[in-house]
Amino acid sequence: xxxxxxxxxxxxxxxxxxxxxxxxxxxxxxxxxxxxxxxxxxxxxxxxxxxxxxxxxxxxxxxxxxxxxxxxxxxxxxxxxxxxxxxxxxxxxxxxxxxxxxxxxxxxxxxxxxxxxxxxxxxxxxxxxxxxxxxxxxxxxxxxxxxxxxxxxxxxxxxxxxxxxxxxxxxxxxxxxxxxxxxxxxxxxxxxxxxxxxxxxxxxxxxxxxxx
Length: 212
Hints:
CATH superfamily of the largest domain: Gcn5-related N-acetyltransferase (GNAT)
Order of helices and strands: EHEHEHEHEHEEEHHEE
Number of strands: 10
Structural class: alpha+beta
Distance between the termini: 49 Å
CATH class of the largest domain: Alpha Beta
Strand order of the largest sheet: 1-2-3-4-5-10-6
Number of domains: 2
Strand content: 25-35%
Helix content: 25-40%
Low-confidence stretches: none
Largest sheet: 7 strands, mixed
């Protein structure tokens, strides 16, 4: 059977991401999921009624940084509007890798769908702390736009790393300082290293994309 790429539900994507992505977490909020479906019988994957197995998943959504479009506009010289920009938040596949089904091909097909929905730009981040150098993005024609600033997150007593929004929200709900929130939640501050920023333009916005 021919491989297929298309939108999939959160019900299918979430357990796949939790198993195969290093974070073991599926982002919350509004997400767009794509699945890479291949011959599951031939490759020993769990199959649907049509014999298709889920080999890879891409998760796109709105980034947590509300100023990301403005920052990318400054870095690229393009006029990037927030509603035309998506962040590729998760990209993962089963192990072992199947060379006949490259993730670069998968991403290209995902971007065709997104282009049809009116999106023009995609940004993503690779985390060297987890051994990711962004090679897949480079191979998929993303542009490297330097590194992010280091971030301060927190860790639980068992070493689990959590985003700083956890104690920000706790502090706001309880009317206390963020320092008091970290203490209440028994969290330790953790400074994470910079990430590499990757960017690709998948379509030209109506009226052009250059500044000026």
